[in-house]
Amino acid sequence: MNSEIAVVGCGSIGMRHVEALGRLRRPVRVYAVDTNEEAAKRAKSLFEATRSEAGAAGEIVTVRSIDEIPGDIDLAIVATAAQGRLGVIRSLLSGRQVKAMILEKFLFPRAADYATANEVLGGLRERVWVNCTRRVYPSYREVAERIRGAKFVDLRVSGRAAATPIGAIGIHFVDLLAFLGQDKDVRLSATGEDLTLFSTRRDVDDFAGIVNVQSEDRRLRLRYSALTETEAPHGIFIDTDKAQWVIQEWCATAYIATPESSWRFQPIPFAIPYQSQLTDLVAEEILSRGSCGLPGFRESTRLHLALMAPLLEVYRVLKSDSRIDAVPFT
Predict the structure, then answer these.
(1) Distance of alpha carbon 89 from alpha carbon 83, whole angstroms
(2) 128, exposed or middle or buried, with CB in 10 Å at 0-12, 13-18, 19+?
(3) Which CATH architecture has domain 3-132+278-295?
(4) What is the mean pLDDT of residues 54-74?
(5) Per-residue pLDDT tens digits for 240-274
(6) What pTM was computed for the model?
(7) CATH-assigned architecture of domain 138-272
(8) β-pair type (3-8, 75-78)
């Protein structure tokens, strides 16, 4: 019997989800849903190429609307823009059973949307995950294991704003901080420094500047810098009492210093998988075990709202409109 999977939104991320699903070894039928027929066709071609390379036997169907999906869904992946995501969730849950769901980030643009989504999802919310993927990278899982029980985690990220804007990309590192802190109930707060708006390559407003994030007890700290003054790719520094890392994700390289090395940095490989190398693994976990390594909806809601608070406040000031209730990025 086929596992029924729907990927809603076949843009730059959605098509990579579809591509990866072609690797699933189990019988599967994937619905690639997009109002843009060309986008859905591109996703289908990627699926078929991956399926052929993997020797798998999954089936793919392209449709323009969720209403064209004939029955219940074992796993839905919502990869639309944030502004329409709540409506997509409602449509998916209208008249059919959805057993599990993965939502792309940034989750929603309005603070009120999170409470509404929580209500709309109902009991399903315990089987909804958010696609902040660094938690499932083997390299970061090794970091988390090595620093288990650390007295503090200080995470610093810095790079050019065009590639790592605070809204679209910063949430990944807020999530990474929570993951490395190994506390699902952690409460984080955020403040901004020198925040400014700029237009990304997709002509969407996002933020440059600095965001500082910390836990209530200050054990977990993040300083995230998205800089317009540099063309340098982002670099990452993780400092704990157990080990330190300097990480260059863009070239899959890292350096580690430990007490055993007398705190001298030594090079290590640091693999960074693509989305097209991850979704099939996460989907298989969900379909076979009912869980996965991504952050759950409840935890991710807290992290999103923590990052959103200072950004929305500054956005209102920059636009001279205190009535604004949504952030601009997707």
Answers:
(1) 12
(2) buried
(3) 3-Layer(aba) Sandwich (3.40)
(4) 95
(5) 999 999 999 999 999 999 999 999 999 999 999 99
(6) 0.96
(7) 2-Layer Sandwich (3.30)
(8) parallel
